[in-house]
Design brief:
GO biological process, one term: carbohydrate metabolic process
Keywords: Schiff base
Protein name: Transaldolase family protein
Shape: globular
Largest sheet: 8 strands, parallel, barrel
Number of helices: 12
Number of strands: 8
CATH superfamily: Aldolase class I
InterPro entries: Aldolase_TIM, TAL/FSA
CATH class: Alpha Beta
CATH architecture: Alpha-Beta Barrel
Structural class: alpha/beta
Helix content: 40-55%
Oligomer: single chain
Number of domains: 1
Distance between the termini: 47 Å
Order of helices and strands: EHEHHHEHEHEHEHHEHEHH
Amino acid sequence: MRPDTLKTRIFLDGADPQETRQVIAALGFLDGQTTNPSLLAKNPEAEAHKVDGNKFSSTAIYDFYKALCQELSALLPKGSISIEVYADADTTVADMLTHAREFDAWIPNAHIKLPTTTAGLEAAAVLTGEGRRVNMTLVFSQAQAAAVYAATRGAGRGDVFLSPFVGRLDDRGEDGMDLIKNIVALYGQSDGHVQVLSASVRTMDHFLCSLAYGADIITAPAKVLLAWAEAGKPIPGPKYGYNAKGLAPIPAEALSLNKNWREYDIRHPLTDAGLKKFADDWNSLIDMNS
């Protein structure tokens, strides 16, 4: 069951409903699930299509994604299911909006994942203005966090998730957990409409430190959640001793949340790289001649 002192919501990062069932059984609860094109490409059925040389058509891939999200929604009817729009460097705001509105109609508990780019923020402003829920992904900087807050100002609490990617910052020698800590502090005096979702969580240390730093939500792969369950679902205090293992610290920035979102410098090379990786993984599932 859910620990009485647990304030953070726990999501599974994955696209395999069998994993969802396994995690629910192990934890006794689960608050939601996040999906993305890379995770979809690892789904057993999707992998089988690739191995057999029987890739999806450009329409069948959406049918597959829809059925998957509907199965996850049925497993987690009171949770949130994040569904990611296709986006590459050339995807327009109009294209993002078209797909976002379509995906939002698939299930009643969707958060639509958008990249934290200029086009993604424009789309987020429109969608939250329509009362839809979004999850801004590929976040690697405090300026991006401030821009998301400003672009979605007026949205209800819980309607906007912000997904800073811890592990990918670690990969380039920076302490990704510092970004979580700094964004939680940045939002500390805000109206609370944006919730911090710690993502790219790869280890138990990442998971426990995210709890200690006060992330609103953590999404983690099944192996981490199952290990947490096996350990008795410990909840560390705010003085949890995280070992950054020599990673370079990310200093806190004094940013105002009151500016127009276009005034923030949201550029980040890892956002660009992540966008390309997600697009490549999505396209790897599709028969481009169909």
